[in-house]
Design brief:
Strand content: under 5%
Helix content: 40-55%
Largest sheet: none
Number of domains: 2
Distance between the termini: 93 Å
Number of helices: 4
Bound molecules: zinc ion
Shape: rod-shaped
Length: 97
């Protein structure tokens, strides 16, 4: 019975996640021909998928914000709120006669 091929230790870290060399091996492999062990891990590991697609950046923590809200969005919401209040007052006055 043939032994299962052992993944190159340089390709994975202690947790079994892909190292930079592992990601490079997957990216260098032709489509469908990536090393099976690496492909199997990648299929089941979200952080590794993220790092592969984002060029090695670590995945964001759950709930982490990606920057402050843009000031123009806050201003637009404020203006919309004021306009809504004005139209409500005008509507009430018009309805009241
Ligand atoms: Zn992983």
């Amino acid at each position: 019975m043939p032994e299962a091929p052992v993944p190159d230790p340089v390709w994975t870290d202690a947790r079994g996640c892909l190292t930079a060399a592992g990601r490079a091996a997957i990216q260098a492999a032709p489509p469908g021909a990536a090393p099976a062990e690496l492909a199997a891990h990648l299929a089941s590991c979200k952080p590794c998928q993220y790092r592969l697609l984002s060029d090695g950046r670590p995945p964001p923590k759950p709930g982490e914000r990606r920057g402050a809200p843009l000031i123009w969005r806050v201003a637009a919401l404020g203006v919309a709120g004021v306009l809504l209040a004005l139209f409500s007052l005008l509507l009430v006055r018009w309805l009241a006669g």
